[in-house]
Design goal:
The complex is a heterodimer of chains A (113) and B (114). Chain A has 113 residues and is mostly beta strands. Helices cover 0% and strands 54% of the residues of chain A. Chain A starts with a strand and ends with a strand. The chains are: A mainly beta (113), B mainly beta (114).
Protein backbone atom coordinates (compact mmCIF):
# COMPACT_ATOMS: atom_id res chain seq x y z
CA UNK A 1 0.00 0.00 0.00
CA UNK A 2 0.85 3.68 -0.06
CA UNK A 3 3.51 5.01 2.32
CA UNK A 4 3.60 8.74 3.07
CA UNK A 5 6.53 10.34 4.86
CA UNK A 6 6.33 13.84 6.29
CA UNK A 7 9.07 16.23 7.44
CA UNK A 8 9.82 17.95 9.68
CA UNK A 9 7.96 16.59 12.69
CA UNK A 10 8.20 19.96 14.46
CA UNK A 11 8.70 23.43 13.05
CA UNK A 12 9.02 26.78 14.82
CA UNK A 13 8.94 30.05 12.91
CA UNK A 14 8.73 33.71 13.79
CA UNK A 15 5.48 35.45 13.07
CA UNK A 16 5.54 36.81 9.54
CA UNK A 17 8.04 34.25 8.27
CA UNK A 18 7.22 31.41 5.88
CA UNK A 19 6.79 27.74 6.79
CA UNK A 20 7.34 24.78 4.49
CA UNK A 21 6.30 21.19 5.17
CA UNK A 22 7.33 18.40 2.82
CA UNK A 23 5.86 14.98 2.08
CA UNK A 24 6.88 12.08 -0.11
CA UNK A 25 4.74 9.18 -1.26
CA UNK A 26 5.52 5.76 -2.67
CA UNK A 27 2.57 4.75 -4.89
CA UNK A 28 2.78 6.27 -8.35
CA UNK A 29 -0.97 5.63 -8.71
CA UNK A 30 -1.77 8.29 -6.08
CA UNK A 31 -3.32 11.32 -7.68
CA UNK A 32 -5.05 13.25 -4.90
CA UNK A 33 -3.11 15.06 -2.16
CA UNK A 34 -4.97 16.92 0.60
CA UNK A 35 -3.53 18.83 3.55
CA UNK A 36 -5.26 18.98 6.90
CA UNK A 37 -4.83 21.28 9.89
CA UNK A 38 -5.62 19.91 13.31
CA UNK A 39 -6.00 22.08 16.37
CA UNK A 40 -5.85 20.69 19.87
CA UNK A 41 -8.91 18.60 20.73
CA UNK A 42 -10.45 18.92 17.27
CA UNK A 43 -10.75 16.87 14.13
CA UNK A 44 -8.56 17.48 11.06
CA UNK A 45 -9.79 20.33 8.87
CA UNK A 46 -9.05 20.37 5.15
CA UNK A 47 -7.09 23.49 4.23
CA UNK A 48 -6.05 22.81 0.65
CA UNK A 49 -5.76 19.92 -1.78
CA UNK A 50 -4.20 19.26 -5.17
CA UNK A 51 -4.75 16.71 -7.89
CA UNK A 52 -2.13 15.15 -10.10
CA UNK A 53 -3.04 17.15 -13.19
CA UNK A 54 -1.97 20.35 -11.41
CA UNK A 55 1.54 21.35 -10.32
CA UNK A 56 0.67 24.14 -7.93
CA UNK A 57 -2.38 25.54 -6.18
CA UNK A 58 -2.70 28.64 -4.05
CA UNK A 59 -5.31 29.93 -1.63
CA UNK A 60 -4.40 33.26 -0.03
CA UNK A 61 -1.39 32.58 2.24
CA UNK A 62 -1.38 28.83 1.62
CA UNK A 63 0.06 27.06 -1.40
CA UNK A 64 0.75 23.46 -2.30
CA UNK A 65 3.19 22.20 -4.93
CA UNK A 66 3.32 18.75 -6.45
CA UNK A 67 6.17 16.99 -8.26
CA UNK A 68 4.79 13.70 -9.57
CA UNK A 69 8.08 12.62 -11.08
CA UNK A 70 9.85 12.86 -7.74
CA UNK A 71 6.72 11.80 -5.81
CA UNK A 72 6.77 14.68 -3.41
CA UNK A 73 4.48 17.54 -2.49
CA UNK A 74 4.86 20.48 -0.16
CA UNK A 75 2.76 22.91 1.84
CA UNK A 76 3.85 26.54 1.94
CA UNK A 77 2.43 29.04 4.42
CA UNK A 78 3.48 32.65 3.97
CA UNK A 79 3.22 35.53 6.44
CA UNK A 80 2.58 33.14 9.28
CA UNK A 81 0.35 34.19 12.15
CA UNK A 82 -0.01 32.77 15.68
CA UNK A 83 -3.34 31.21 14.69
CA UNK A 84 -1.47 29.07 12.16
CA UNK A 85 0.00 27.13 15.09
CA UNK A 86 -1.37 23.58 14.86
CA UNK A 87 -0.49 20.10 13.64
CA UNK A 88 -0.52 19.72 9.86
CA UNK A 89 -1.03 16.40 8.07
CA UNK A 90 -0.42 15.56 4.46
CA UNK A 91 -2.19 12.64 2.79
CA UNK A 92 -2.22 10.79 -0.51
CA UNK A 93 -4.92 8.79 -2.21
CA UNK A 94 -4.67 6.35 -5.11
CA UNK A 95 -8.31 7.13 -5.88
CA UNK A 96 -9.31 3.48 -6.13
CA UNK A 97 -12.09 1.76 -4.28
CA UNK A 98 -13.07 3.95 -1.37
CA UNK A 99 -10.54 6.67 -2.15
CA UNK A 100 -8.58 5.71 0.94
CA UNK A 101 -6.40 8.42 2.39
CA UNK A 102 -2.93 7.53 3.60
CA UNK A 103 -1.60 10.07 6.06
CA UNK A 104 1.81 11.35 7.00
CA UNK A 105 2.75 11.45 10.68
CA UNK A 106 2.15 15.16 11.11
CA UNK A 107 4.12 18.38 11.63
CA UNK A 108 3.61 20.48 14.72
CA UNK A 109 3.94 24.10 13.63
CA UNK A 110 4.54 26.78 16.25
CA UNK A 111 4.41 30.42 15.21
CA UNK A 112 6.24 32.59 17.72
CA UNK A 113 4.74 36.08 18.16
CA UNK B 1 -17.21 19.79 11.26
CA UNK B 2 -19.26 19.43 8.07
CA UNK B 3 -22.41 18.09 9.73
CA UNK B 4 -20.70 15.22 11.52
CA UNK B 5 -21.17 14.30 15.15
CA UNK B 6 -19.51 11.56 17.12
CA UNK B 7 -20.65 10.02 20.37
CA UNK B 8 -19.49 9.65 22.98
CA UNK B 9 -16.71 12.25 22.85
CA UNK B 10 -14.83 10.62 25.70
CA UNK B 11 -15.00 7.12 27.10
CA UNK B 12 -13.05 5.13 29.66
CA UNK B 13 -13.62 1.41 29.73
CA UNK B 14 -11.98 -1.75 31.00
CA UNK B 15 -10.17 -4.45 29.09
CA UNK B 16 -12.53 -7.10 27.76
CA UNK B 17 -15.65 -4.97 27.64
CA UNK B 18 -17.52 -4.24 24.40
CA UNK B 19 -17.55 -0.64 23.17
CA UNK B 20 -19.55 1.00 20.40
CA UNK B 21 -18.77 4.40 18.93
CA UNK B 22 -21.29 6.23 16.80
CA UNK B 23 -20.84 8.57 13.87
CA UNK B 24 -23.81 10.55 12.60
CA UNK B 25 -23.86 12.75 9.49
CA UNK B 26 -26.42 15.16 8.13
CA UNK B 27 -24.81 15.60 4.67
CA UNK B 28 -26.27 12.48 3.01
CA UNK B 29 -22.76 11.52 1.86
CA UNK B 30 -22.28 8.06 0.47
CA UNK B 31 -18.91 7.20 2.00
CA UNK B 32 -18.13 7.00 5.70
CA UNK B 33 -14.84 6.10 7.34
CA UNK B 34 -13.39 5.26 10.73
CA UNK B 35 -9.78 6.22 11.48
CA UNK B 36 -7.68 5.96 14.59
CA UNK B 37 -5.02 8.50 15.50
CA UNK B 38 -1.97 7.54 17.52
CA UNK B 39 1.25 9.45 18.19
CA UNK B 40 3.84 8.73 15.53
CA UNK B 41 1.32 7.10 13.19
CA UNK B 42 -0.86 9.87 11.90
CA UNK B 43 -4.35 8.65 11.03
CA UNK B 44 -4.91 5.08 9.93
CA UNK B 45 -8.04 3.67 8.31
CA UNK B 46 -9.92 1.02 10.29
CA UNK B 47 -13.03 0.38 8.18
CA UNK B 48 -15.10 2.23 5.65
CA UNK B 49 -18.57 2.09 4.15
CA UNK B 50 -19.64 2.86 0.60
CA UNK B 51 -23.36 2.56 1.22
CA UNK B 52 -25.98 1.12 3.54
CA UNK B 53 -24.84 -2.35 4.61
CA UNK B 54 -21.75 -2.06 2.36
CA UNK B 55 -18.53 -2.03 4.34
CA UNK B 56 -14.92 -3.05 3.90
CA UNK B 57 -11.69 -3.27 5.87
CA UNK B 58 -8.93 -0.72 6.12
CA UNK B 59 -5.30 -1.22 7.10
CA UNK B 60 -5.86 -1.69 10.87
CA UNK B 61 -9.18 -3.56 11.05
CA UNK B 62 -8.25 -6.39 13.45
CA UNK B 63 -10.37 -6.27 16.62
CA UNK B 64 -12.96 -3.92 15.10
CA UNK B 65 -16.29 -4.37 13.37
CA UNK B 66 -18.64 -1.85 11.78
CA UNK B 67 -22.24 -1.57 10.75
CA UNK B 68 -24.23 0.86 8.67
CA UNK B 69 -27.99 0.34 8.67
CA UNK B 70 -28.83 3.92 7.65
CA UNK B 71 -27.10 6.41 5.40
CA UNK B 72 -26.53 8.80 8.28
CA UNK B 73 -25.11 6.42 10.89
CA UNK B 74 -21.88 4.42 10.97
CA UNK B 75 -21.07 2.40 14.08
CA UNK B 76 -17.65 1.14 15.17
CA UNK B 77 -17.60 -1.75 17.65
CA UNK B 78 -14.77 -3.11 19.69
CA UNK B 79 -16.06 -6.54 20.64
CA UNK B 80 -13.58 -6.97 23.50
CA UNK B 81 -11.54 -3.84 24.13
CA UNK B 82 -7.78 -4.11 24.68
CA UNK B 83 -5.29 -1.53 25.93
CA UNK B 84 -3.80 -1.31 22.42
CA UNK B 85 -7.11 0.16 21.27
CA UNK B 86 -6.64 3.22 23.47
CA UNK B 87 -6.67 5.96 20.87
CA UNK B 88 -8.55 8.88 19.40
CA UNK B 89 -11.11 7.74 16.84
CA UNK B 90 -12.25 9.95 13.99
CA UNK B 91 -15.13 9.49 11.63
CA UNK B 92 -14.96 11.00 8.15
CA UNK B 93 -17.44 11.38 5.31
CA UNK B 94 -17.09 11.88 1.57
CA UNK B 95 -19.59 12.40 -1.23
CA UNK B 96 -18.01 9.61 -3.23
CA UNK B 97 -18.78 11.25 -6.54
CA UNK B 98 -16.15 11.53 -9.25
CA UNK B 99 -13.95 14.52 -8.55
CA UNK B 100 -15.51 15.14 -5.14
CA UNK B 101 -13.50 12.75 -3.03
CA UNK B 102 -12.68 15.18 -0.25
CA UNK B 103 -13.01 13.70 3.20
CA UNK B 104 -14.42 15.73 6.06
CA UNK B 105 -13.70 14.76 9.63
CA UNK B 106 -15.75 14.73 12.80
CA UNK B 107 -14.58 16.01 16.20
CA UNK B 108 -13.27 12.65 17.43
CA UNK B 109 -13.82 10.26 20.33
CA UNK B 110 -11.08 9.76 22.89
CA UNK B 111 -11.19 6.15 24.11
CA UNK B 112 -9.15 4.90 27.04
CA UNK B 113 -9.01 1.17 27.77
CA UNK B 114 -7.69 0.38 31.24
Amino acid sequence: GENVEQHPSTLSVQEGDSAVIKCTYSDSASNYFPWYKQELGKGPQLIIDIRSNVGEKKDQRIAVTLNKTAKHFSLHITETQPEDSAVYFCAASPQTGANNLFFGTGTRLTVIP
Amino acid sequence: DAGITQSPRHKVTETGTPVTLRCHQTENHRYMYWYRQDPGHGLRLIHYSYGVKDTDKGEVSDGYSVSRSKTEDFLLTLESATSSQTSVYFCAISPGLAGTDTQYFGPGTRLTVL
